[in-house]
Amino acid sequence: MAKRSRTLIIQAYPGIGDMIWYLPYIRAIARQSPTGKVTVLTKSRSLAQRWLTSEPIIEEVLYIEKNEIWKAIREIRQRKFQQSWALHRSVTHAFLPFAAGVPERYGLGLGRQNLFLTSKKCLDARWRQKHTIEQLESLMALHSIDWAKESRRLPLLPKSLNYVDSRFGALPRPWIFFGIGASDRLKCWPLSNFAELGLSLQKNARGTIFICGARFESKEAEWIVEEMSEGGVHAQAVTDLEIEDSFALLSHGDLFVGNDSSLMNAAACLDMPSVGLFGVTPPLTYSKNLYPVIRPDQKLETETPMASISVERVFQFIEEKKLLKEKYFSKEAS
C-alpha cells in the first residue's frame, strides 16, 4: 500500500477576499507538510482554480458546493490524504475528512467540531466571535507554525502579466484604481463620489484612473468614466477581465480607492497603497498597505452609511498620508 503523505486544507468561505486572507496560513501549513504542498477544498465562488493554482505550494484546488457532502467525501477518500486542516468553524467541514478516513485531522475545533479532530489543540469558546484572521493566527500559534514570515502577495500568471502589458501598458502614469463594487450594495460608496474624487485627483496628478468592477457593473463604470471625462480626466472602465488578469493589472497600480471588497484585499496584497472605505463593516488592518477610512459616527443609525464618507475626507486622507508618489502628487501637475 502506498504511503500517505498529502495534506488537505478546507477553506469554505465563498469569497475571493476570504481566500486572499487565508494565503499566508495556507503557505505556512504547506511548508510544514510532508510534501511541501497542499490541496485546497473551497467554494467555486472563490474562483481559486483560476488564480490560486499558479501558487507553487498548491497541488490541487477542489470545489465543494452546498449539498455536495458525499461527493466531497468521495473526492477526499480517493486522494488518500495523510492530514487535513479544517480552517472553517463549520462542523460539517470537520466531518468530511473524518468520514473520508484521513488519519491526522486538525482544525479550529470550535463547538462540536472537535469531535471529528484527532488534534486536541483547538480554540476555546471565547474565539467563536473573533474575526477569521484572529482565529487563524491563534490556531497557528497553538501548533507552533510560524505564519508571520509568509508573504501575503498574490500569485500572478505570466500570461496575465503579458496580456495586461499589451492592453494597458501605454497608458499614462500614475495608475489609480477605483473599486466600485462589493458583495452587498450597502457597502458601496455612491458612484457620484467616485466621479468627484477622480476630478479632485486629476487636478493634482496626471495619469489614468481605472474604474474596476464586475461585468454586471459595466454601465455604472461607464457612467463614472463619462462624468470624469467631461472634466478632462483620463479614465477607463475595466469590467471585462478574468480574475487572474485583474490581479495582474492591479500589480502595476500606484493607488487603490474602493469599497470593502475582494479587489481592495487584492490591491493591498499586491503592495499597492489601498484606501478602503468602511461605512458598514469593521475596518481591516491586517496589511500595512491597507488604509481604512471609516464613516464619521459609527454609532449613528443611517440608511446610507457609505454616503456619510465625504469626498473631501477621502481626498484629504490621500493627500495627508502622501499615498501617491511625490513626482505624481504635485500641485504643479494641474
From TrEMBL:
Domain of life the protein comes from: Bacteria
Residues of the signal peptide: none
Keyword list, A-Z: Glycosyltransferase, Transferase
Entry GO MF terms: ADP-heptose-lipopolysaccharide heptosyltransferase activity
Record-linked InterPro entries: Glyco_trans_9 (IPR002201), LPS_LOS_Heptosyltrfase (IPR051199)
Pfam families on file: Glyco_transf_9
GO cellular component: cytosol
A GO biological-process term: lipopolysaccharide core region biosynthetic process
The protein's name: ADP-heptose--LPS heptosyltransferase
Lineage, broadest ranks: Bacteria, Pseudomonadati, Pseudomonadota, Alphaproteobacteria, Holosporales
